[in-house]
Design a protein that fits this description.
- There is one protein chain.
- By secondary structure, this protein is mainly alpha-helical.
- The chain folds into three domains: 1-42; 47-120, no CATH class; 124-208, no CATH class.
- The chain has eight helices and no strands.
- It has helices at 2-19, 38-41, 60-69, 78-88, 110-118, 124-141, 148-166, 187-208.
- The chain starts with a helix and ends with a helix.
- This is ATP-dependent DNA helicase.
- Pfam families: DEAD_2.
- It comes from Myxococcus llanfairpwllgwyngyllgogerychwyrndrobwllllantysiliogogogochensis.
- Residues 1-159 form the Helicase ATP-binding domain.
Length: 210
């Protein structure tokens, strides 16, 4: 079912790409940024080839950048504003000219967009993958130098406890996180789970450093 949804999304993107003048995904009908298809037709600062890309001259991002650099007033969406800040942080380039004044519309959406583009995400499944990788690597390359079963088990247990601290959630749903803990999550349980996960990570790092 997911493969069919991805195929339909890619077909829609192909049609849309022939007609769009801006390449702005906000104009793409039915696009969900969480779709499994999104990484298949977008680039990030990690995999963008820049001027080395064979389609560089046709790239909507760089066309918009050239136009913006020559403009006195630039109207953009929140995503592009934060994308520019993310790229500036790398010291490699910038998408937009420097400004003295910025005016935001729909400012109540800034937090969510900023977290999405400037923040980091880590799923419990990634922690579990890390635990399995630590175990496999330890047994293959450093057997007997550490209790790899115990290290991996501690990391896996801490990851599951951290996930349980969040509670049951609908897959793909997001929690608002404006304070020390996400909304609706027990602060004590959350803090304890994070401390345990941090301790398990330090233990794994120490073992890997042997």
């Amino acid at each position: 079912a997911e493969d069919s949804a991805v195929a339909r999304m890619l077909a829609r993107v192909e049609v849309w790409s022939q007609a769009t003048a801006t390449g702005d995904l906000a104009e793409l009908p039915g696009w969900d940024e969480r779709s499994a298809a999104t990484p298949l037709f977008t680039s990030t600062r990690d995999n963008c080839l820049g001027s080395a890309c064979p389609r560089f001259r046709a790239c909507h991002v760089y066309q918009a950048r050239r136009e913006a650099m020559a403009a006195d007033v630039v109207v953009i969406n929140h995503h592009l504003f934060f994308a520019d800040h993310a790229i500036r942080g790398t010291g490699v380039a910038e998408l937009l000219p420097s400004t003295r004044v910025v005016v935001f519309d729909e400012a109540h959406q800034l937090s969510d967009t900023g977290v999405q583009l400037l923040g980091s995400q880590m799923a419990s499944s990634q922690w579990l993958d890390l635990a399995r990788d630590v175990l496999a690597s330890g047994l293959q390359w450093a057997r007997g130098l550490a209790d790899w079963q115990g290290v991996a088990a501690a990391l896996e247990h801490a990851a599951r406890d951290w996930r349980m601290a969040v509670g049951a959630r609908t897959p793909g749903s997001r929690l608002r996180w404006a304070g020390e803990v996400p909304d609706g999550v027990d602060a004590e349980g959350w803090s304890r789970a994070l401390q345990d996960l941090s301790a398990a990570c330090r233990q794994a790092l120490a073992a890997l450093d042997t």
